[in-house]
Design brief:
The protein is an alpha/beta fold. The chain has one domain. The chain is built from two helices and three strands. The protein has helices at 28-39, 67-83; strands at residues 19-23, 43-48, 57-61. Strands 1-2-3 form a three-stranded parallel β-sheet, sandwiched between helices. It is globular, with a radius of gyration of 15 Å.
Length: 84
């Protein structure tokens, strides 16, 4: 493969029954990570200042620099995760 070639490795993971919290998941790398966790079966929660719609994920408005918002979000995720 030359310098301009691209290496693509296809992997499969099983995150069924697992919960993933992705901070900064509304765009860029965070959104890509969230989409992959959804793809592999995780229950995904995206914490960001900007809510998004990503099928299979729940988006919560959370400013992770504020401990009160993080504590509230943790409680919310625990309640929702335990309900499934």
């Amino acid at each position: 493969m030359g310098l301009l070639g691209r290496l693509v490795i296809e992997v499969q993971y099983d995150f069924s029954g697992q919960t993933a919290v992705i901070t900064g998941g509304s765009r860029g790398i965070g959104r890509a990570v969230a989409a992959q966790f959804v793809r592999f079966g995780a229950q995904v929660y995206i914490w960001d200042a900007d809510p998004i719609e990503l099928p299979g994920a729940t988006s919560l408005i959370v400013d992770v620099s504020r401990s009160d918002q993080v504590a509230e979000a943790v409680t919310s995720v625990e309640k929702q995760a335990n309900a499934h």
